[in-house]
Amino acid sequence: MQLFLTPTSPFARIVLVTALECRLADLRLCWTDPWRSPAELVRANPFCTVPTLVTRQDGAVWDSGVICDYLLSQGAPSAPLRTAAADAARLRRYAAARMLMDVAVRKTVLERHRGPSDQAAGLLIGRATDALARALRQVEPGVAAEPLAGGRADMADLTLAVALEYVRFRHGALYGAEVGAALAAWLESWSPRPALVLTTPAALAARPAYDNLFDMAAS
Question: What pTM value is reported for the model?
Fold first, then answer.
């Protein structure tokens, strides 16, 4: 399988985390810049977005949630990773984590490409900032009531960890203002997990080969 990704995309990161957690060995990383519309990525995915997974037997799959579901069906994680469909609280956490990523990335893109007199972009950035602040405050009570990370993990927790680290990475002032002690401690308890350590933007800046990541995660 072939995965198109960038070093800083949280959507690509959660796919890579899932692949490592599922102990999938058959994966090749294709580092790319979707903003340049590379022909190989456009052929695989008409939306030209990352992550995009190209499989041998099933063609191309895009959207990080769909790719993660596909990988979960292919791999052999040490413990069940799929968030239980009957557990509404876990599903809410999973949904909140995915929306945190989505809105944080939207805010990043708007801020990067906003013109000096772009009032519409300013309004959208303000709405994204307010939404992120509300979501961060709402997530905290749920994690505060739990023990810190142990051996168990599911997609809700892994996605929330990736989302929070992205907010801290791109929107540090907002993270510092809205993330309380309990949520910060929760994130710090998850951060040493090998699949997370190996996939930070700093770790991926060197554009490592997947084989190296797989070997380090397994060691």
Answer: 0.95
Phi and psi, residue 43, nearest 5°: -65, -35
Residue the block writes with tokens 């949520």: 183
Q: Which residues of 119-136 are buried (b: 16+ CB within 10 A; e: fewer)?
A: eeeeebbeebbebbeebb
pLDDT in tens, 137-147: 999 999 988 87
Of residues 190, 208, 189, the one with CA closest to residue 198: 208
> Packing angle between helix 210-218 and helix 10-21, nearest 10 degrees?
50
State the Cα–Cα distance between residues 183 and 193, nearest whole angstrom. 17
In whole angstroms, what is the distance from residue 128 CA to residue 133 CA?
9
**60, exposed or middle or buried, with CB in 10 Å at 0-12, 13-18, 19+?**
middle
- Mean pLDDT over residues 14-41, rounded? 96
24/40 Cα distance (integer angstroms) = 23
User: Which DSSP symbol is given to 77?
Assistant: -
